[in-house]
Amino acid sequence: MNIKAQNQKMLSIIYQIPVGLVQTDATGGVQEMNAMAIQFLMPHFVAAGLTGENLFDLLRALFPKAIEAIKAYPKPSGNIIQQERFKVSQQDGNDNASQHFILTINRLSEENYLFIIDDITELYTKEQELFQIQQEHAVERGKFEVISGVLHDIGNAVVGFGAYLTKVKQLNSNSDTLMLKKLAQFIEANQSDLAVGIGAPKAGAMLSLVNALREEQEEHLKKMETAITDQMNIVTHVKDILNIQRQYLKVDNNERTLVSLRSIVGDALAMQLATLEKRNIAIQTYLPDGLPPIKGDRTKLMQVFLNLIKNSIESIDQKGGDNHQLILRLEQDQQAIIATVQDTGIGIPPEEKGKLFQRGFTTKNIGSGLGLNGSQSILAAHNATIDIDSPGAGQGAKVTIKYPLPKP
Fold it and tell me: Pick from 174, 220, 364, 401: most CB atoms within 10 A?
């Protein structure tokens, strides 16, 4: 297969890949845009009264944080934003009609950017529906089966996408660069004979052309390899999360069995690990082996720790700055197993501490006020207690949960 045909095949694959890809110049001018990117973005270009020729103009209107990140990025190449969520609200303010996207921005060179965008509105909607179901204690076995089916379908899609990326990677490896290198070596070795036949200038030009084609092909393949590897890493992480979720969905609702808090806390941390790493939050864990199991609902307890870790991340986001920590600890005394979740986030003013477990109370800009109230209800059903302590605003917080040990 010649280079032109192979490039056309590769471009055709990229054009049809099920995520949006946009390449721009240094000022945001669109150079390439695949089919999904056109589908995702063109309605918003039109709604904003833009021609669709400059992606920066659209981001200024929809997601100005991306423009700020691009301007602040100091390196000539590298990852600027990794899987950042943003919401595009409808003009009528109807949240149900809003779209939710996930955006990755890579700087390819000082002249080019690559934007990877995906519409996660359906997934976001399912997450919100699941959250509401969990908080209202309305999850029945049949609903768990539906959710399990959704996860199964998502898992199949992820596996399919991973296989597709593997195929693209294989196609990428079957390049003609070696042939071009050999051709260049042949032309260089026979320059004198070629000069006799077609003239020295044309012989030299032929060698330069072949070398230029080879270098361009090698650079293109290198960029494709990096992009494919990044996407395959994302697919692997999604698979891990789905496997954890399936494990918890297998448990019957309200089923009380002997469970390991160490395993539950570890799984909750694994599901939030990518978010913690993206925010450069240092993680310290003290999860010793040998702690006795407790009798409880594994799924409900998982919900508690996911909510607490998520709260810590949001608290750290609100405070801003660097050198933040999340500390997860399990220990045992004579009466109980004690779990603590400690962060260096925004903290809690003394006047708000007594309201934290009230239904509907929240300190977040966007929040339902159901998380801590629901967690307290779940723990109370397990004869456990939860308490939150903070030195004050801006000084972090520590959540302490005590699970009483069964009496001998």
Answer: 401
CB distance 104 to 81 below 8 Å: yes
Query: Dmax of the chain from CA atoms?
Result: 100
341-375: pLDDT as tens digits: 999 988 888 777 777 777 655 655 444 334 788 88
Do the strands 99-107 and 78-88 form a parallel or antiparallel pair, or are they unpaired?
antiparallel
Tens-digit pLDDT profile for residues 372-408: 888 888 888 888 899 998 888 888 889 999 998 876 6
Residue 402's SS3 state is strand
Token couple for 193: 């004979």
Give dist(CA 81, CA 44) in Å, integer: 21
DSSP string, 14-74: HHHSSSEEEEEETT-BEEEE-HHHHHHHHHHHHHTT--SSBHHHHHHHH-HHHHHHHHH--
Q: Number of helices (H) and strands (E), helices first, in the chain?
A: 12, 12
Q: Which helix (H) or strand (E) holds 312?
A: helix 298-319
Distance between first and last Cα of the chain: 75
pTM: 0.44
Residues 49-62: b if buried by 16+ CB within 10 A, e if exposed: ebebebbbbbbbeb
Compute φ and ψ for 171, nearest 5 degrees.
Answer: -60, -40
